[in-house]
Amino acid sequence: MSLNRRNFLRISATAGAGALFLNPAESLASAKAGEALKIPTRKLGKTGLELPILSMGVMRADNPSVLRAAYNSGIVHFDTAHGYQNGKNEEMVGNFLTGKPRDSFIVATKCKARYPFSENFEKEYSEMMDTSLKRLQMDHVDIFYAHALDKVEEVKDPRLLAVLAKFKEEGKTRFIGFSTHANKPEQIDAAIDAGIYDVILISYNFKLKQLKETEEAIARGVKAGIGFVAMKTMTGGTEDAEGKKKIDAGACLKWVWQNENFTTIIPGFSNYDELDECLAAVADPKLNDKERKYIAALCNEELLYCVNCRKCVADCVEHLPIPDMMRAYMYNYGYRHPSLSKDTLMELSLSDKLCTSCNSCSVTCTEGFDVKQKIASITRLVNVPDEFLV
Ligand code: SF4
Ligand code: SF4
Predict the structure, then answer these.
(1) Is 384 left (phi over 0), alpha (psi -120 to 50) or beta?
(2) What is the pLDDT of residues 246-275, one digit of tens each?
(3) Residue-level pLDDT at 325
């Protein structure tokens, strides 16, 4: 990458701090996706959308200037969720996008429903969708995901399919999909069979255990017209819980871009430096030998990322939702986002006396995690008042 290019990216990313080079209303008003910085684009399944390969997962961001810098840099796809920051994340996205040409951005949100669904699921889920639209100050989103489906049955549940189809018919969303951390190839096949899903947002990185099977299922999904968006691509952001060894974000992104079945990635950058790293990667998106070796070495290391193999769930005498708890651990110690970690734990409705029935832990984690220690460490968060958390 040339010095000029690097400088341009840095200036562009930090424009939100004051030195605006581009008027956001003008920069993309007449531009197609990705033209501001010539970010390569890929088609999103049968949706007809063509998205830059770099998007923004807004989850951790709480500074609208970072969104502005991303937008000015050619990023057009912003991914939020009903639950992020207790709704403040959607409100921030809505405030930022209000007044911008509707065809200059793509917004995705997600709502989570407890499974099995309650008697009032349809009514409650519709109300959540309406609340999200109100917070976003929009009459429709571009992509609506059923959030974090972990079971194959959820993907094909007729009640979920009916309510998603209704959202689309009512014009509340242009496209429908689901997100998953479970990474089961069977979920993708279930989505193909269901026939209504346009997009799947899926965890994808070099640590996945069933990588080959997952990639084959993704290829089947693409053939069926489903678009794929990648998340959790940086395996936790840091290698260690102390945050001393940061993961090379660029290498992780480039590893994912190798798979052309993924249209785009939604890295959760929350400051200008992290955005700069992503922009530097997109300016030179091919994985080089050094980065390839770095990724290969990381494959054999214990990181903060739980690969969701679910072996521990059967091993645990209390059948605890350990993969979700490990995700909460990663949000706190990797992403440095305790409120997101607490929200994730609260959704699990955990008992206040965990692991009390065991003298020694019967779980052997495939990633080498000391599961009992991590559970004890992270669950302290549920007792911390929200006002002390960021
Ligand atoms: S100590 Fe281990 S086996 Fe026992 S409940 Fe905790 S995680 Fe499960
Ligand atoms: S065994 Fe380890 S890696 Fe696998 S799901 Fe459980 S915590 Fe995650």
Answers:
(1) beta
(2) 999 999 999 999 999 999 999 999 999 999
(3) 96
Say what the pTM is.
0.88
C-alpha–C-alpha distance, residues 223 and 192, integer Å: 10
**Contact criterion met (CB below 8 Å) for 238 and 246:** yes
C-alpha 318 to ligand 1 mean position (Å): 6
- Residues sharing a CB contact under 8 Å with residue 164, sequence separation 6 or more, in sequence order: 144, 146, 176, 196
DSSP string across 64-83: HHHHHHHHHTT--EEE--TT
Query: What is the Å distance from ligand 2's center to 306 Cα?
Result: 5
Q: Is the CB of 376 under 6 A from ligand 1?
A: no
Q: What is the pLDDT of residues 122-149, one digit of tens each?
A: 999 999 999 999 999 999 999 999 999 9
Q: To which residue do tokens 């460490």 refer? A: 377
CA of 359 from ligand 1 middle (Å) equals 9
CA distance 76 to 83: 22
Asked if 199 and 226 count as a contact pair (C-beta separation under 8 A), the reply is yes
Q: Extract the tokens encoding 94.
A: 């809505």
Rounded distance, CA 73 to CA 330, Å?
29
Measure Cα distances from 2 to 9, 15, 33, 176, 188 in Å.
11, 20, 24, 40, 41
Question: How far apart are the C-alpha atoms of 390 and 373, rounded to whole Å?
Answer: 23
Q: Which residue has the tokens 């949706």?
A: 47
Q: How is residue 34 written in tokens?
A: 């990705």
Q: Answer whether 361 contacts ligand 1 (Cβ < 6 A).
A: yes
**For ligand 2, atom 2, which residue shows the shortest CA distance?**
365
